[in-house]
Amino acid sequence: MRGHLQKTIIPMLALMGTSCPSGPDFVSGNAVDVQIRLDVNTRGAEIADTFYGLFFEDINYSADGGIYPELVRNRSFEWKTPDPEPKLRTLIGWTVNYNKAGEGSVEGATASPFSTANPAYVTVSVTKAPYVIANRGFAATPDMVLNPGEDYRFYFYARDKDYSGNIVCALENGDGQTISNEISVTLNSSEWKKYGPFTFSSPSGGKALLVLRCEGTGAFDLDFVSLMPTNTWGNASQWPHGGLRADIVEALKSVKPGFIRFPGGCIVEGAYRHETAYQWKDTIGAPEERRENSNLWGYMMSYGMGFHEYFQLCEDLGAEPVPVLYAGILCQARRDRPTEADYHPGTPEFNALIQDYLDLIEYATGDAGTTWGAKRAANGHPDPFNLKKIGIGNENWGANYWRNFDAIRSAVLAAYPGIKVITTTGPLASGGINDEAWQKINALYKDAIVDEHYYMEPSWFLTNTRRYDSYLRNGVQIFVGEYAAHETSRANSWYAAICEASYMTGLERNADIVKMASYAPLLAREGMFQWAPDMIWFDGGSITNLTPSYHIQRLFSTNTGTVVMPPEKAPKTGDLFHASSLDEQTGVIYTKLVNPFPKAKNVVVSYANADLETEGASVVTISGEKNSRSVSISEDAPSLNNGAITVRLGPYTAAVIQVRLKTGPK
Ligand code: AHR
User: 184: which DSSP letter?
Assistant: First the structure.
């Protein structure tokens, strides 16, 4: 990964003072393609500390099967298809009579569940033992990835009917070998009872499946079978139901996100019916009581990664939570029903919807004496979370949306005048929907944050770096809540990422109105995704690809100051793209350079009125093959010569130069 930059740094340009000569310039015989003159006394807009963030949606098995480390798929037998006519798929993830030696049956039931939130369970009837029920995890073959030396917490709910004998629980590899201790359970209650938690102590590593070997005969009901690692992200007192997958959280953490948008995205609207709209109240408290729900990406959500976990993750990562709730409008991009189906202000369902917004804000910000603040305290967090903003709807538009937005916004601001509301311009970068939204916003909602989304071809990102230069400066703030450069193949590529990087310099230059930006989607499980490209790919055990887009997000997010430093002259067409900023606390000046072109560029950055440290400057460079899914990253220490730094930026290369002001007024 190292070494590339050494080749790209060229000898220093001998500059007179801090200015560069006019006319053609040469850097040790090479023409200077781009001169960037910065003046420490010329400062632009403040850059919000929320500027670069993340958007987490449960798509591509990001939550269950992803960051939420439950190893049992369909642990409470609730699996349904998300069609307008949902069909139960009780045994998704499960194999019955796994050993093929027993005789019996496993039948879905809902007649008398232990939790009305999740009514499905199974009745196991064994006529010939041993009869084995197994869960493979999230793939067709055994896929519970166990880390050697770690412990796994296991429990289940059961109700005895007339079963006699033990149920022996263990972890096995795909060859039928037991790789853990065995836990033998005797059922002793004809009522629903929780058995466990038990510990599988330090099983051998590798891919496993969970087996429940019924050694007796007779029948019992079974529900909520859970197996989770104990070694996870999160402090146990704040993560009472278990933490998150540490490798994925670490990858998010290293982006230093300023905010996390959650939970969608399209899943906010549910799977084509109001009843499946994402209801945050279903996602807190005891995992067994979280009403599972299908999403329009085609799978069930256990809500193990629910709203409390989301707020806690934000706090752990120092990110501001930016929740988005349902506006009572079903997914418009996939609408197959008349607009009369939308919720309407004044109706009981709309009033309940408004209450959900107010209750969520109280859950996050109310003191522990309030109804919802008390629930937050009971869930392990007596102090409020840092909620300041809330999104009303995702990618909605049209008269019904603006009507609903207006009503929800009024109710939120009446109760919580300090909360900023976020509206949407729909799913497209331009066109009638986007124009209509901007007319509304500029006329009526100048206090709003506006969430714009665009998934466009890479060239669009290069030709639109000046998009926000001409937007009105009237108080409206921009949130680019979802964006990504899409190759025709929809593959992650370095070229897509460097086009995103080019565009991001334009976002940063417009930090007076652009306040937040997040790439989308964030996570994808290999072999189980519904959308590509994505920022981070993983499988059951590890991260498989920190994509080029991830590296760009991290490079930008971790190298941004607190104020824009406008260059003396705006970049010329065909120049590389760049943006500079100064951190007024640390005195570090960051200059981002992006060359999305096939020709190398010689760049000189000069710093006027700057008393710079002569040591400690750095250049981090990322480069790669255009179509590659991986990148090369290098770091070097360029010399500062007469107040300027010179770099040669190779083809398809992005870099950040850092220099530091000496002590004194920043
Ligand atoms: O990011 C994937 C999807 O793209 C989101 O769910 C939706 O908001 C957008 O259309």
Answer: E
For a ligand 1 pocket test, name from 451, 480, 482, 519 the mutation site with the most ligand atoms within 8 angstroms of its C-beta.
482
pLDDT of residue 425 exceeding 50 = yes
Q: Is 531 in the pocket of ligand 1 (CB under 6 A)?
A: yes
From CA 192, how far away is CA 209, in angstroms rounded?
25
pLDDT at 22: 32
Please, which pLDDT band fits residue 448 given cuts at 50, 70 and 90?
Answer: very high
Q: Are 21 and 41 in contact (CB under 8 A)?
A: no
Q: Buried (b) or exposed (e) across 18-45, using 16+ Cβ within 10 A?
A: bebeeeebebeebebbbbbbbbbeebbb
Extents of the domains making up the chain = 5-44+562-665, 52-69+232-557, 94-229
What single letter denotes the amino acid at residue 389? Answer: K
Summarised one tens digit per residue, pLDDT across range 255-278 is: 999 999 999 999 999 988 899 999
**Residues 70, 309, 362, 395: which is the catalytic one?**
395
Both tokens of 510, joined, read: 């417009």
391 lines ligand 1 (CB under 6 A): no
User: What is the per-residue pLDDT for 649?
Assistant: 96
Q: How confident is the model at residue 28 (pLDDT cuts 50, 70, 90)?
A: low
- Give yes or no: 500 in active site: no
Distances (CA, A) of 218 to 104, 124, 126, 282: 9, 8, 5, 35
Q: How far is 491 from 393, CA to CA, in rounded Å?
A: 29
**pLDDT (0 to 100) of residue 492:** 98
Percent above pLDDT 70 for the chain? 94
Q: Does 5-44+562-665 carry CATH code 2.60.40.1180?
A: yes
Residue with tokens 């051998």: 204
For 52-69+232-557, CATH number out of 3.40.630.10, 3.30.565.10, 3.20.20.80, 3.40.50.410 equals 3.20.20.80
Cα atoms in the Cβ-side hemisphere of radius 13 Å centred on 235: 8
